[in-house]
Design a protein that fits this description.
Length: 442
C-alpha cells in the first residue's frame, strides 16, 4: 500500500511536489484554500478586451531544468520561444536601440562574442568582463562569497559604472527582480553557474501562451485519476505529537490524516499553521523582506503587432528608466517594474495615476512609434508580495525542506533552494521534498 502525502497549497511548489511524488508512487492529496491553482503563476480573462492576461509577465531561463522536467512528466509541450543563446534588446536613455546577442557553442565564448559586439561597451569595458570567466571557472564560493552582496563582488571584479548600467543591472533585474545592492553574491554565483552549463542554458525564454496554459491546465489534466485535488479547502491547523504531525484540520474542522505533510504556502502564511508555542519551538524563522512587482498593461488605439517581431519575441529593456522591461504582444504591451519600493526614489509618494502617467510617458519617449498614441485601456497591477529581497543574510531565514518535525516538509521559492524567488526555485523546492521523502521513508 502506497504512503499518503497531504500537500498544503496549490501554487507552483505544491503542484511540483504533487507531480514528483505521484511519479514516485505516493498517494497524493493537494489542498488549496482558494478556488484556483497556480499561486502567482495564474492568468485571467479581461472582460473588456477579451484578452487573457498573466498575473505579471514571466520569463523563463534556459537553466530551468526542473521546470522543463516537470512539464515533461505532465505531458505538456509548452509554447515557449527558445533561442540558441542569450539575446536581449535595450533602449538607451536617448531612445537609441542596443542589441546584445551571444553566439557560439561554448557559453563563455558565446558570451564573449556578445560582449565584443555590444555597442555601449568600450574596449576597456570588454577586457574587464574577463572577470566573469574567473568567477565561473574558479570556485570562489566558499573562499570569498559568503556574507557578501553582489555589488561588492562586482566591484571586486572591477566592473565599472558603464558595465553596471548596460550589462549587470539589466541582467540582475531580469533574474532577481531587484538591483545588485540587494542580491546575495552566493545566490548570484549559483545562477551564473547554472546559466553557463552550456550555450542553451545561457538564454532567456519567452512564454508564447498564458501561464494558465503552461502550468495549471496541464496539471489538472495530469491529475485526473492520479492526484486528489481539493480547492476551496483551507488547512488552518496542524496538530503535533511525539515530534510528528498527527493530523491536519480544515477551516471547517475536518480532520486529515496522512503519513507525510508538505507545506507549500507562502512564507507569510506558514506561521499560521501552528500554535505560537510550536512555531517558536520548531522554526522561529525571521520574516523575509517582501518585494512588489508592478505590471502595467497598455492597449493602444492602433495596431502594434509588428513591434513584437522587431525585438526578441517582443521583449526589450529600458536603461535608466523607472520601467525595467516592456513586452510587446499582438494587441497590447506590458510594462514591468520590479521592486519599486527599493529601486525608485520617492516611490511611496506617487499616486497610482501619477505612476501610470510616469510609465506611459517613458514608453512614449522610448518608442517614436508610440509618441502620440492614445491608450484606450490601461490596467495597473501591483502585487505587493510578489517576491522577496535575495539579500546576503536571507539564507539564514530560508528553511531547508526537511524540518525538526519528522513527517513535515516545506516547499516554496522562499525555502533554501540556493536560487532567487523564480519559477525554477518553486519547482525545485517541490522536487526536493519528493526526493527527501522517497530517500528517507520508502
Amino acid at each position: 500500500m502506497s504512503k499518503s502525502v497531504s500537500i498544503i497549497g496549490g501554487g507552483l511548489s505544491g503542484i511540483s511536489a504533487a507531480v514528483y511524488l505521484h511519479n514516485k508512487g505516493f498517494d497524493v492529496t493537494l489542498f488549496e484554500a482558494t478556488a484556483k491553482l497556480g499561486g502567482r503563476t495564474f492568468s485571467f480573462e479581461d472582460r473588456e478586451t477579451g484578452e487573457t492576461l498573466d498575473n505579471g509577465q514571466h520569463i523563463f531561463a534556459g537553466w530551468y531544468k526542473n521546470t522543463f522536467e516537470m512539464l515533461g512528466i505532465m505531458g505538456k509541450k509548452p509554447n515557449l520561444h527558445f533561442h540558441d543563446a542569450l539575446e536581449v534588446y535595450f533602449k538607451d536613455t536617448d531612445g537609441k536601440e542596443i542589441h546584445f546577442k551571444a553566439s557560439g557553442d561554448n557559453p563563455l565564448i558565446a558570451a564573449a562574442k556578445g560582449f565584443v559586439n555590444y555597442s555601449p561597451l568600450s574596449f576597456r569595458d570588454k577586457l574587464k568582463l574577463l572577470g566573469l570567466r574567473e568567477l565561473i571557472e574558479i570556485d570562489i564560493r566558499e573562499r570569498l562569497l559568503k556574507g557578501k552582496k553582489l555589488d561588492w563582488l562586482l566591484m571586486y571584479l572591477k566592473q565599472n559604472k558603464n558595465l553596471m548600467k548596460y550589462f549587470w543591472e539589466p541582467f540582475v533585474f531580469a533574474v532577481f527582480n531587484t538591483s545588485p545592492q540587494y542580491v546575495d553574491a552566493e545566490i548570484f554565483y549559483n545562477v551564473l553557474d547554472k546559466a553557463f552549463t552550456d550555450v542553451t542554458t545561457f538564454s532567456l525564454i519567452i512564454p508564447g501562451e498564458p501561464l494558465e496554459e503552461i502550468f495549471v491546465k496541464p496539471f489538472l489534466e495530469y491529475a485526473i485519476d492520479r492526484i486528489h485535488i481539493r480547492t476551496q479547502c483551507k488547512i488552518s491547523k496542524l496538530e503535533l505529537g511525539n515530534n510528528r504531525i498527527k493530523s491536519a484540520f480544515t477551516e471547517q474542522g475536518e480532520e486529515i490524516k496522512s503519513d507525510f505533510y508538505i507545506s507549500a504556502v507562502p512564507s507569510y502564511n506558514h506561521k499560521t499553521l501552528f500554535s505560537e508555542e510550536d512555531y517558536a519551538k520548531y522554526f522561529g524563522l525571521k520574516q523575509l523582506q517582501p518585494v512588489s512587482i508592478i505590471s502595467l498593461y497598455l492597449f493602444p488605439e492602433k495596431d502594434i503587432s509588428y513591434m513584437k517581431d522587431r525585438y526578441y519575441y517582443g521583449m526589450i529593456g529600458l536603461i535608466d528608466k523607472c520601467a525595467h522591461w516592456v513586452f510587446f504582444k499582438e494587441k497590447y504591451l506590458c510594462v514591468v517594474v520590479s521592486a519599486p519600493e527599493y529601486t525608485i526614489k520617492g516611490f511611496d509618494k506617487y499616486s497610482v495615476d501619477e505612476f501610470i502617467d510616469l510609465l506611459t510617458g517613458e514608453v512614449r519617449s522610448s518608442f517614436p512609434e508610440l509618441k502620440n498614441t492614445e491608450f484606450m485601456k490601461v490596467k495597473y497591477f501591483r502585487e505587493k508580495r510578489a517576491t522577496f529581497l535575495p539579500e546576503f543574510n536571507t539564507r539564514d531565514f530560508r528553511p531547508d525542506c526537511e524540518t525538526k518535525i519528522e513527517n513535515y516538509f516545506i516547499a516554496g521559492d522562499w525555502t533554501n533552494t540556493g536560487l532567487p524567488s523564480v519559477i525554477e526555485g518553486a519547482v525545485s523546492s517541490g522536487k526536493k521534498c519528493s526526493e527527501v521523502i522517497e530517500k528517507g521513508y520508502l
